[in-house]
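retry 2 of 3: previous attempt timed out while embedding pyridoxal-5'-phosphate. Reduced batch size to 1 and resubmitted. Inputs unchanged:
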Amino acid sequence: MKTDPASKIQDLLQFGEFGDVNPSITDSATYTFMEAKTMVDTFHGEQEGCFLYSRHWNPSNKYLADALAAMEGTESAWVTASGMGAITSVILQLCNTGDHIVSSITTYGGTFAFMANYLKKFGIEVSFVDITKPAEVENAIRPETRMIYTESMTNPLLQISDLPVLADIANKHNIKLVVDNTFTPMVIAPAEMGAHIVVYSLTKFVNGKNDCVAGAICADAAFINALADVNTGSAMLLGPVLDPMRSSSIHKNLHTLHIRMKQHSQNALYLARKFEQAGLRTIYPGLTSHPQHELMKQLMHPDFGFGGMIAIDLTTSEKASELMEKMQQEGIGYLAVSLGYFKTLFSNSGKSTSSEVPEDVQKDMGLSEGLIRFSVGLDQDIERSWERIEKCLNTLGLV
Ligand code: PLP
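retry 2 succeeded.
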């Protein structure tokens, strides 16, 4: 029986200083102390419950972080100004010059670029592997490896990481398993399956409104405190702090995430079946044709479905562009990057969110230039949406 992330959030009593049902928004960069010694102790991390300066911690961010920790089942959490802020803070906290990372080759393009290009200046090496092959992952581990990095459901190929197996490998080698769960909040609970650190782009499903970018790190208290350390913490020192106004609005949106995930998943399963029946190569973990369909069934929380992401392969980027433009004209959704929005979004991954990945690497990982990634929206009448998509496919002679 999987634990219920939505009820864990619901059970938190989080209200404002005047009993306001939504916690008050912190509109302060700094905080007063009644006694000078308390300030000194707070700087040294010896004083709990005091706020010092908003880049370090602030109450609004703490409310959101506590709710996310409850959802993930981790001791603690930290929120950041973007998903990349979360990912880069974690990597730079765990790795020093000369260290090594084993990462899924299929990840969000920004993560790939950070690992393949940016980490070079720190002398941190990355071995990119096929994350669906645990033997390949384990073989890539060296004495200086600090972490295995993956996405629960990879962007954009929608491969499923076998998190319990990867956690066993990480534990055997005494290294961390870091998992980006952006595509599958509530659907997959990485920390419960052994991930040591879970990162999110909250920009996507968790917020669900496409009105801001934000990120989160969920982990044990020791790691989160290390991130906030005034002398050595990457979150404290690099400063990717989330604005309290934003964390407050994301916090409210988090409370409807469970309902949204069900609807995203239900609509995506419907469309994925239709795409496949129409004869298009379709990638969706809810289809029996998906190579990790059985694994997905083991990992997922059944209440939240197989997630809201689908990929279809039109083989060429020209055909993909034609279809996306037509679908936008027909009101099916927007030709836009990002995901987890209430409207359907579609983009040609190889030319957009994975364009940081060199073309030969895209080919090696099986990313077709005609792949369209869909983030399926909350459409009330998904049959009507399919009729419109089908009309576009027929008009363009694609099926
Ligand atoms: N992780 C995944 C899986 C993503 O898809 C993205 C962005 O598309 C990110 C991380 C980066 O998040 P952000 O854009 O909030 O920095």
